[in-house]
């Protein structure tokens, strides 16, 4: 399976973005005493002290009777629970009302109910990037580049991608009627697709030259370890000589899953991760695996958080892997979600422990430094050009800066990249226009800006320009070579 | 008394900044039914329904027993009350813990306990702007421009202004030992000052040429109406022929106070303001005053909020006053603070009503449009220059943009103000350097940047450059003239 481009949105990812920055434990690893035990005051049956219940009740009553608009009492109670969590000052301890809780749990599970089509937004149109393997969408015959015109009679034209995804998804067993436009055909196709459980793909692998394999992990969901082993085994059967594991922009996931994956590489008896509870008791997770005899490197960046950092730390400190890319995010805590206790479908995600790397470092707020720092080209993160006014000689703005960064990234050497449109920039624009078969004016009008952006997206999607990936593969090749000459 | 410059910080204002954006009612104007009455579920003695108390108690217990760090239970309860208020989605309904509540009430009262010196921060030094009239600081002989070196043995050098103010303030009757440096003298002076109640000055007046008076109101505190009437009466005795009321950057204050002030100008029987409660009942505040026979204008800007907007609306719609300056802030609600109910010194400030202008407009979120829009010069809001690197020909940055705006404001015509340092900018820098008796290089080094900023501050403080104030005075002069020629 091919590595997915960063430009594509997963149907589920579009809905879940942001909620997954967690490191969940699923009950078995830790247990705690019953709630409310440690309060020293006289408690009511609810677990609140009399004075606490009185303060909360008085506030609730005042708001309800005095506020100038009508008030939803349950919103106030949810607000109160939310406020308690916020008082902790920990961004990873959160209250989630029922709807958010459901999405969160889907993301942890790595599955959802829908049709299973990865979609992206293209000029206001919802376009299929690819149907997920084995999903209802694939079985029905949905193809990459199909444009989804409408769902159950509702047009998706111009709709926000998240809203469109919400229309396509739905409960298991329900039917989505999709009107599709395919190729340049004027005639549309209609598909009746029954929604079902769809397992989210979180592992992608490829085999590069000289036996170097690359496995990308997009998040650590419940099924990710099994999928990882599957892909790893495929690569090994193809004669894997060295492996690059890519956890860039991987926000984390489930703790036992990352331990399971790390165990494939950390030799028996060595530490994968240490977990320190509130009483400062440390629990060392020791590998029962046997290690690998081929070299491993980990690609990471500032979007690699939590479980990704556990993997990077474990493989660096206990399996001799090199870390390549940018400094990682820096989240060194473990959360559990309590989803039954509140009794109404809402849940509390609470930070219950710190985790430390095998050598006992707490990377929280600092991240992990790569062994080999490799930056992506600056045009990977350039802002788009505001096309409402043309840019020309003597213009000076952040739009010119974007255009200069794009021109430079595409090899047209504008000279300066600080936003001032000088003669060097003008010459570069002319060269680009000539190469792109546009009218050569030296002025960045709408057409030129669009052509620049299109050329840039191609450049970003071209693996040849992925500095970090290239360096990872190169390092592994070197290590394979060194090993071969030693043996 | 002279109008205070915008650059100065009031001792109290430095501590209260931001908390005053309110429109308080002090008990008499509105009454409501008892708290908690409207809940339809079975309530416990605290006013919470069983299910509510259970949810809150469970969350509290889970956090306390599971969170990875120790937890202050009272912080969680305060967080819960805070969370209820935030659930309203109203930025003006807030929970304030005891300390914040005390500061808030001081700001409403318009008095505090301290020594009564208005101070500013100047290059890391705490400098007295002026002692407040009749305050302990004035009685002890503290003078403008005194540098406060230390308070009770603690050096203020390099301290944040808010922290320094907190050191200077203290309970009534306590003593502050101030070490002062005055003039260029190497010897320091020591003052033992007994802290006392200090009334904050909120009203400043001046008489301009041709009988035009200007009264500035900085906020509407409990004593502001009395002070306003005092200053107005002084001006009238001096032969006032027309009045400019300046409520620019006045964040508001107490509702009955602004009604009292508006009543000086709104003729008997006309509406000052309408207040609409949660049941959509409107209460019209009708003037019992007699109006004035001289013209009135109100200066306002985007910092004029709440009570300032009530005054502007009342005087425009019911007293024929012209509004001059920028669009106002747009806060159309009334709050009451409930400071006894929670029983622990904390308070709830709750929005209890909307207010409408005399003709029934709700200006919330929109503000009031001036009759005559007058902008201040752009250099009034320019950012300071980062002096770590010199700026010179072909530089391109926001620092250059600041420098160009300053040069332009000072009359040196750099040509462009977009951040690109061209030959026009270079010529302007040379002219400025020559006038400021600096080495003429055309390069903005530290000395040139400092000289530019010093010249700019002088320009901002010069009333001749206050476009809005000038226009206000001019309009009133015209109206006085028109009236005279009609009579």
Automatic annotation (TrEMBL), chains A, B:
SMART domains named in the record: PDZ (SM00228), TSPc (SM00245)
UniProt domain PDZ: residue ranges: 101-183
EC number: 3.4.21.102
Keyword annotations from UniProtKB, A to Z: Hydrolase, Protease, Serine protease, Signal
Cited InterPro entries: ClpP/crotonase-like_dom_sf, CtpA/B_N, PDZ, PDZ_6, PDZ_sf, Peptidase_S41A, Peptidoglycan-bd-like, PGBD-like_sf
N-terminal signal peptide: 1-24
GO molecular function, one term: serine-type endopeptidase activity
Record NCBIfam families: prc
Family membership: Belongs to the peptidase S41A family.
Protein's UniProt name: Carboxyl-terminal processing protease
Annotated organism of origin: Paenibacillus forsythiae
